[in-house]
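Sequence in, structure out.
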Amino acid sequence: MMKKYLQFYIPTIFFLLVSGISSSQTFELGVLSSFEGYSGNGGVTNGAGAVWTGDVGTNSGIIRGDYTGNSYNADAITKQSRFDLLRTYIHLNDLFVDYPGTHAPAFGGGETITPGVYYTGAAGSVGANLILDGQGDPNAFFVLKFLGAFTVGANATVTLINGTKSCNVFFIADGAISVAANANIKGTLFSKVGAVGLGAGAVLEGRMLTMSGAITTGIGASVRPPPCNSTIPIFCESGCTPAPAVDVLGVVSDFALYTSLGAVGNTGISGVNGKIGTNSGSISGYTAGIHIGKTHIADTNTAQAKTDLDNAYLALMALPVTGIHVSAAFGAGEILTPGVYHTSGAGSLGGTITLDAAGNSDAIFVLRFAGALNVAAQSKIILANGAKRCNVFWLGGAGVITGAVNIGAGSVLKGNFISHGGACNSGAGVFLAGRQLSTGGAVNTNTGIIYTDPECVTSTSLALDTDNDGIPDISDIDDDNDGLLDTAETANDTDNDGIPNYLDTDSDNDGCADAIEGSGSLILSKLKKLTGGSIGGSTKNLGVHSDTNGSPIINSQSSSGYTQNQTTAVTDTNENNACTTDLKIIKRVDKAILKLGQTAVFTLILKNEGLQPATNVQVKHLLPTSLTYNESLSIIPSNTTYKSLTGIWSLGSVVIAINETIELRIAATLNTVSAIITNKTEIFFSSETDINSIPNNSN
């Protein structure tokens, strides 16, 4: 058993122990917070007489002109900025679209629009005056997205009224962004791939960002960051736990792009968060873009992935058909219920399809096609009512020799797209939360964004002064005054995921938390830097198999133990892994934002994943003082008790069978304004043998 503690500021939406963490939090720029302009690949020029307030940076290019802030060029900061830039783009582009193509590409002309996310499947513009009306909501946000270039006309203005703030306004374009002379704009200009340019005399209260492209300001222009922090609610998580029926990918789950046989290639500038690999072929075209993760070519990792992907195909094919769909064409606005669907031939997806889990987080959507699968341009998959991307599979070549998967340009998709024996390709500008995989064919992308997880931004602003010593962290050799030089703390990033080892809960990405590994270097006191407002830790579960320093040993009779031959913590002379989970606790909360006097319901789901029944289980869930227990709205399972004063949920003699789950619902009312909710849950007692990770072996 493992324990983790994390602390979230309100709002909190989801808390998962053991495998990963997901939450609803506000939009974060991380290290980019102090930047006025940043390009992942391109020069930056501030025009003659132009006033630039804030930092400037590029990871590849020349910086010209005068700036009031600091300049960063091709260094550790600009490298981290590239990772944060990709993550922030993912968060903004993943927001639910309130107005999908319902507004003309041209905005302005004196019009007033209400808060929300607007999408145009082409180039767009702002002319004359555009008024953004927050309707009295200080957290109102406006995100205008264009599948093409974005232009602002000469003398055009963007006016904010009734609570709208520039830090909650974003103009996002797939192409270049151009602001003409003397325009006055409020909001951040974000080009996925393209230049961002301001004309002479233009005024911008917002940032200029691009993954690849030049940034320029004209003569006499004036630019500065928003004078506030964004409050846009976004969803981020570090993992997605699939339902048991489709938990089939094995090590392939670490890959965003993988083929067992063939090349993996990219055209243009793409962003990928996840491993890229081939077991037999080449990988090309990704260095100019942004890639968070490792690249693997014909190594032990890809060899295992080949085996796991073959097994995944067999497992998906073995699932009984439970859904009925009269047509081979999916989409066109339909709502699909959970199930396994099989089409005896080629199939297609076009328009919008909503996958509705009906409140079941283990609902699966497996769509098999005995032929090719073609996804039309600008198709869209929406997940509703608990549906998860890791429970969605689109399989081409099901039961036949080959079946290619082709994803059309501009599509916004969620799930795993697998070609059996064929190519798996995506067109220009595809946005995929999931994977492109093939058992035997090429995998190609084109100026797309492919990511396995919408990871939280974990870095901090360069303007931060953690230890309040008057020296900004960027210039402080020991920014938290802990006696450890920052260079020593940040030098190593074993798994190249953008998180230094000392902040990474699994620094070698082996699936076992550093806190229970003999060589782990996690510094618990610094976990507050992982996500906004969070702290955390993990305790070792080695029983008597640890020395006085808490280091793992494999001989309980010895004070020093034996030297182990692997980095993962072991519990006996056979070097059994201490990371396998027997009992797992998942915790969710039903409200994203909790206001004074409102009641939240915490749902604790306890599952026995071991190989023997568990009894006498006790779970501790102590509510913080800012929450008052509401017994009348709580649901306590039969033959169990929950005592709010101690936080102990005692299951007594209740037997939890293998793979059985039992659920507790605790209602609590917020009694304090601006409270920090520290919410801890742990399994701290069970009669189930758990001295090591191998059940039923008398240890």
